Fold:
Amino acid sequence: MKIKAILFTGILFTISSAASANQYVTGGLGFGDLNLDHNDVSTKPEEQDFSQVTINGAYGYKFNDFLGAEAKLNIGASDEDDLKAAATIGVYLKAGYTFNEVFEIHALAGYARTNFTIRDNDDVSANYDSFSYGIEADFNISKSWAVGANYMSYLTDTEKAIIDKKPVNIDIDYSTVGIFARYSF
Structure:
């Protein structure tokens, strides 16, 4: 799967360099939420919830008015007591529609790699590869500039673990909401 993502990213950048009029970059700020939840009949339900400010950016290419591709980077800019900043990189297909050349809405689906470190007695680092999806709304200020907001679900996974000598499933979710500015070349 990692090779497919790298190949897809390479194709994206090759195609986009051939026709620069359809390229764009974004940059913004967001709020990320990492949730670890285990609930097993034999154990008391427990949930750990970590929040952080995020910095995000993207490089994209529009194939036409309805379809594009995008590479995203999302980095946690703040550390909570028990969470060292999470980071995510992903590649996406992006489908959308433009209303009156001013307002755009997009759905994104793709692949993301997320890593984070939880500080406990020992630092525990984890890397996850996962299906990722999101939605964006953009408001075009000019032909080149737009502002927008988005929701991205970067990670949804279940991991088996042993807690108090009993097997449990831990649900792991990482999502962000954010605002951004987009510049189209």
About this structure: The first helix runs from residue 2 to 18. The mean pLDDT is 82.
